[in-house]
Amino acid sequence: MIFFSLCLCLSAQAQARWIRVGLMTAPSAPISGRGLSGKDGGGRRFSLPASFNTQARGSNVVIQGKSYASPVIVSSPHQIRCGKVNYEGELVLRARAGQITVINRLDVEKYLRGVLGYEINPQWGAEVLKAQAVISRTYALAQMGRHEASGYDVCTTDHCQVYRGTNVLHASTDRAIAQTRGQVLTYRGGLAHTFFCSDSGGATADVSDVWGKSVPYLIVRKEPFPSESPKSRWEASLSAGEIQNALAKKGKSVGTLSQIAIERRDAAGRVTALRFTGSAGSSVLSSAAFRTLIGAKKVRSTFFEFSPGGPRAAGVPEPTRRREAPRTAKKIAFDATPLTAAEDAQLKALIEQKKFNVDERLDMILYPERRRNYLYKALGVEAPETERKQEPLEQPAETVKRIPDPGRTAAFVNLAGGSVTLYGRGWGHGVGLSQWGAKAMADRGWSAEKILEFYYPGTAIQKR
């Protein structure tokens, strides 16, 4: 996941071709390789062994008992290994306060080889890989100096872009980098903000709903094709206590939590704000902030609905089963008659017992009029003939996956000390390019240029 940040002067960044990647900061660092040589901060050159540990002594770098002025530049005509990862370019060793910081300095194009092999599936089509190469290159150049206080430009985590050196090289991603060499995405002459996520869930998010600052080309965009993402559906069960603790950490405590309501949605139906009500009042929090508080691995996106958890209500009778042979028809007619209180409690109990898959649960949330038919289906009983409609219960996959109508009344759930289950789709913040969405486009013949035009409307590809 990549977070929004302020950039340095774009004209200076665009001219930079070398990038400094912070690999680690620790009391010592293991370095190895063939043909290693060093140069210290005073310009003195010296040979190095094939394998050594380096430590800090004050502001000096210590290698095999010898002290050198910081920084020490380790170079080789071959790859250099630090820990368990091999790197192209050179390693810069900086000593400060008893710690050694190891920095990989290399050309941006070589840096991208260690990014794309991790950030996107190298088995995907050429056009989606080329699109990723352009936005990763743009993002890298726009982040020059982001970690300047630590002596480097970018880190190796998803705070910037995940980087794994030459351990993740692939011929397909190398080709994509070579075919787009020097190409970046620009907006009005400056480097664009090329955020991306794994799976948008069917529509991208407006950056202002996630990080609070509007960008003309980072807006809601409904994707034209369904993706085949294995992350397209997810669910997460959250207890009232878990949510209360998260709100308290944010300074948004509402006391004993009793209700959560969807306060706002965007044009595609994605949740953008939630209202939390409790014994001490109510508070509104953006869905992006809520996701961060609970944990992005648990609440995988902000494209979700919710329904209450909890045990089956006591004393609710089981509906009477018909004695005739089981039906074999694949389609069940709709019965939009509202559920009674007892039926509603029974359906909730069946949901709690996981009698329905994620798509069915989400369908019931989005289309409450279908809940009775799902209840009948789970219990194996037939709807009364006088209440039957003619529309089929089973709908095409594209209908199940369609984006919720933003005009629907905001959903809410009463917790009363219990829990809530989120039913969602997609994975990530949703801003900018969706990798699985881009794959679906490439699989249908879209070019890298067309994919980028869709996700970043109004931008242009330039070579720098």
TrEMBL record:
- Tell me where in this chain the Sporulation stage II protein D amidase enhancer LytB N-terminal domain is found: 98-187
**InterPro entries, per the entry:** Bact_Sporulation_Assoc, SpoIID/LytB, SpoIID/LytB_N
Signal peptide residues are 1-16
What is the superkingdom listed in this entry's lineage? Answer: Bacteria
Coiled coil stretches, renumbered:
none
Entry annotated with the keyword Signal: yes
Q: What is this protein called?
A: SpoIID/LytB domain protein
Q: Which UniProt keywords apply?
A: Signal
